[in-house]
Design goal:
Layout lengths: L2 E2 L12 E8 L7 E7 L5 E3 L2 E2 L23 H23 L6 E5 L5 H8 L3 E5 L3 H11 L3 E2 L12 E7 L8 H10 L1 E12 L4 H6 L13 E2 L2 H10 L2 E8 L3 H14 L4 H14 L12 E8 L1
Parallel strand pairs: 6-7, 6-9, 7-8, 9-10
Antiparallel strand pairs: 1-5, 2-3, 3-4, 4-11, 10-13, 12-13
Length: 300
């Protein structure tokens, strides 16, 4: 498997890195990958990493459940049950900051559960999904509005009121090119919603190299609040609000405990998730610090 090494930081373009953490790919290959930290802006990235042409191999697993709808085991049953609840919360969130039900693009829509719910709520939806199987399921759910990627010619002239990336930005090889495209296709008063794991959360610190949300090598980047702001500033985008994703701390803690102890400690992982949420519950943007964070973003 060919790996590529990034010589320049995607956020600040500097060239000096330090090794931050070695993490195993617990889902597919069980190989170890290195997370490095930029010595200038502190951005965390998986480096070296599989090339864009070869990364698909690391998604070929029944355990990668965001691309599947089958509830085959306890973890997938928990994931799907929570997903159905959080989808309704996501739709509610979109409606809270939108004055009208206009056009929405969901990048990395998976099997289409979220955009189906948004469509039923009255939005005009478009989705992208690189995984063929997931894209086929999504297309069946919502129609023919699902494309392989944002470079689809059908999207060239389109602009959107809302663009969402639910746990997607950390997977994208061409980071700056994608953020530029997103800004260029966002209406002037539109909003971007980005949800990513938070490596500064209590559960991330506790589990360390066993923290499931590092998810190497599929997660190419590991955003803190500071480095997310630096990236968005670079593209003349501004964070208007940071919100918690309460359920992620429990799910991630359950997986992390399984990776660490070779078995799932339900009570201990529930307690870790609860503490993580309690420690990260402050209502101020600067202090929200849960396992995953939602960033609401606008043009400057």
């Amino acid at each position: 498997m060919q790996l590529e090494y990034l010589k320049n930081c995607p956020v600040c373009d500097k060239t000096s890195f330090s090794n931050y953490l070695n993490v195993e790919d617990y889902t597919v290959s069980h190989k170890e990958f290195t997370i490095q930290q930029c010595n200038s802006c502190n951005f965390l990235l998986t480096n070296p990493r599989p090339t864009e042409d070869e990364i698909g191999t690391y998604y070929q697993s029944a355990d990668y459940i965001s691309h599947h709808d089958e509830a085959k085991d306890m973890m997938s049953k928990i994931y799907i049950s929570v997903r159905d609840y959080t989808i309704n919360q996501k739709v509610k969130l979109i409606n809270e900051f939108s004055s009208k039900k206009g056009s929405l693009l969901d990048i990395g829509c998976g099997t289409g559960n979220f955009i189906q719910a948004v469509q039923k709520d009255g939005w005009q939806i478009t989705g992208t999904e690189p995984d063929y199987g997931a894209r086929t399921v999504a297309s069946t759910r919502v129609g023919d509005s699902i494309y392989e990627g944002i470079i689809a010619p059908q999207l060239t002239e389109k602009s959107f009121d809302v663009i969402t990336l639910w746990h997607v930005l950390e997977h994208i090889h061409q980071l700056n090119e994608n953020v530029t495209w997103i800004k260029d296709h966002l209406k002037e008063d539109g909003k971007i919603v980005i949800a990513v794991p938070n490596p500064q959360s209590h559960d991330a610190v506790k589990y360390g190299r066993f923290w499931a949300a590092y998810d190497v090598p599929r997660h190419l980047y590991h955003f803190t609040k500071a480095t997310m702001k630096t990236l968005l500033d670079k593209h003349d985008l501004a964070i208007t609000q940071i919100l918690p994703m309460w359920f992620d701390s429990f799910y991630v803690s359950m997986l992390s405990s399984k990776y660490q102890a070779k078995k799932m400690g339900l009570l201990a992982s529930f307690n870790t998730g609860l503490i993580s949420n309690l420690k990260g519950r402050s209502g101020e943007n600067e202090k929200i610090n849960t396992s995953s964070l939602i960033y609401i973003i606008k043009k400057k």
